[in-house]
Amino acid sequence: MSILIENLRHIYNPNSPFESLALDNVNLEIKSGELVGLIGHTGSGKSTLIQHLNGLLKPTSGKIFIDNIDITDSNISLVDIRKKVGVVFQYPEYQLFEETVYKDVAFGPSNLGLDEDEIKKRVIESIKLVGLDYEDIKDRSPFELSGGQKRRVAIAGVLAMKPKILVLDEPTAGLDPKGRDEILMQIKKLHEKQDLTIILSSHSMEDMAKVATKLIVMAEGKIEIEGHPKKVFMECDKLRNIGLDVPLVSQLIKKLREQGFDIREDIITIKEAKEEIIKYIRSKKI
Amino acid sequence: MIKDITIGQYYPTNSTVHKLDPRVKILGTFMFMASLFIIESFYLYLLVLAFLGSILKLSKIPVRYILKGLRPLMFILLFTLLINAFMTPGKIIYSIGPASISQEGLRQGIFMAVRLIFLITGTSILTLATSPIELTDGIEKLLNPFKKIGVPAHELAMMMTIALRFIPTLLDETDKIMKAQMARGADFESKNILNRAKNLIPLLVPLFISAFRRADELAMAMEARCYRGGENRSKMKQIRFTRKDYIAFATILTYLVLIILF
Amino acid sequence: MDNIIKVEDVVYEYLQEETNLKALDGVNLDIKKGEFVVIIGHNGSGKSTLSKHLNAILKPVHGNVIVAGMNTKDEDKIWQIRQNAGMIFQNPDNQIVGTVVEEDVAFGPENLGINPDEIKKRVETSLKSVNMYEFRNKAPHLLSGGQKQRVAIAGIIAMKPDCIILDEPTAMLDPSGRKEVINTIKKLNKEENITIVHITHFMEEAIDADRIIVMEKGKIVLEGKPKDVFTQVDKLKKLRLDVPYMTELAYELRKSGLKIKEDILSVDEMVMSLCQY
User: Taking the model in full, what pTM does it have?
Assistant: First the structure.
């Protein structure tokens, strides 16, 4: 499913002393099947943008089309939007509340008014999708699981709504390296196998370089840079001016080029860097 | 939405009222509240209004702040007014079907509503002009003499401080959980009261769990910072009675005596 | 006294319904005064449990923990130990007590019963040393995560500790908040000679440490200077821990037959090493 955003503006607390402009004329197109990385500081407008995608916030002005349907239209039912767009918020494990994992994952689909069989089918499917063992976990209390497991259960709870677009706000925050890796790989798998459009926000440029097919860099409510990760990470200076990190590999490539290394500029992962450096050094030897 | 709620709000300026000892302000507020239960005649209402007005002026708190605080209570005020107007027997001046408004009732209703407005305004001035810390310090100091009969003065004050510290954090958290559950199709705006109550479970359970977790962590952090109750504890800010405080206290006392005498 | 912290053969068990989980299983560790030690390891590896032993929140089932010459089992010394070894926790929200920054920093010294004038002085200097003095009258919930953590650090410094233990203080922060906190603790270590024990999941934060300790299943499995620890890429990968990106690249390049130094941690070292090739 595609997303088209036109001239989106959002002002918090309009006409009060606390008035603040959170989104300033955002224009954006996300094609079906993309895995989009959303980058920006806390307060750059990322979360505000995410909350517009499933109708939790209404734009001050501008339009949002999901699959060519204008969701800012007042006749659109919110349930319909939320069926299409699933949002996993930061630290989603804090939203768990049921006695068993099964019941918690079933919360979303039962709100959609589905019948028992369909709900069960969806619960089984989504628990498997996040890489957990359904039989082993379904009757356990979500509160006795490990941090990483809790988070997966919470993500399963959103997947059970069968969204076509999945938005994840910093899904790896607060996890240890192993947990971070697992969640990230799970997301990549979901993207490949499930025909989902995924929007992912993260502070880790390295993670983004690994999985995203497109990056959107936000600062002060505006989109600053947009494009393929290779293209975005080449703009070291611009990223630094916004106060964001540049992946270390991009920094290295830039410095090596300055030292006269004749290597490609658009390298963002360790694997690519290794291949390119070896190719260059071998060519120099001959 | 939920973030608009303001409890224990403090309006920082450098007014005379702000600089008073919190004990004077707390006791003063209590005396003022007491005075409201005594007043009967129209002229005394004017006296209270004048007194309240001058304190508000001295405190440099904008009137719109007070009005903002009254707005959510409009329903209660109106309710008080109408109940009194309809329920008090007397000379009927207006009737709708079987119900009728009496002259005495209307008068009584207006007075009760005005009394409530005075009460709310008075306590608002206390919280607006006293920082939460001063307030808790003041309460602790006032309760100190009762420690001997087992009143846990320090513990009560510490509880208040922590509550005030965590109210904004928990409101923020409520907002977040609400949004997360709404994204899963939860409906918090159902017209049906029973459904609405049931729908609160997905909000309240995570909120309680989170509050307990926070309490646990906070207790550990406090212990790690050598907290062991009120014993041998010192205070960075000492509160002391000055000449101004004696004058203020005398003024309020005079006011109360005047109200009682008339 | 050279070692500020001595951990001797410490065992700690969490009592669970069926099995006794050994969170610490024979840990030995000496930390010198003024040292900057980073502890890495997975959740459940025992890092947090160890850190809580260092300021007597937890007490060992077996073995001893000695802080500044005092055994944590000695009930009379407990407050002195906690004053000497300050502790910062992961969640910046759940460790701030005061409703105003200044009041929170004063909380520790107030608990120690220090006189008001001295507290005022300490609050001022500690807020200045974490660069938060201008926020002294703000309410904590209006600050960013990084700022809250710095306030928490100021609250500890105001108690004049010899040593600060930080249990994943950066886990919930964004990159700029993380930098603020790291720079603050580095500065305190260098300028005020405060011993730092820093627990983290971010390997790049460990590069400048004096010593790195890797924990797994309640034991110390690897220990040494960053260069010595991070070059053991295979071992770290087996533990499913990260390696700094440049060390990983150096490791990959060596595997492909390129003879460059293996103890590379930063971009500049990598550039230098490749230029010499």
Answer: 0.87
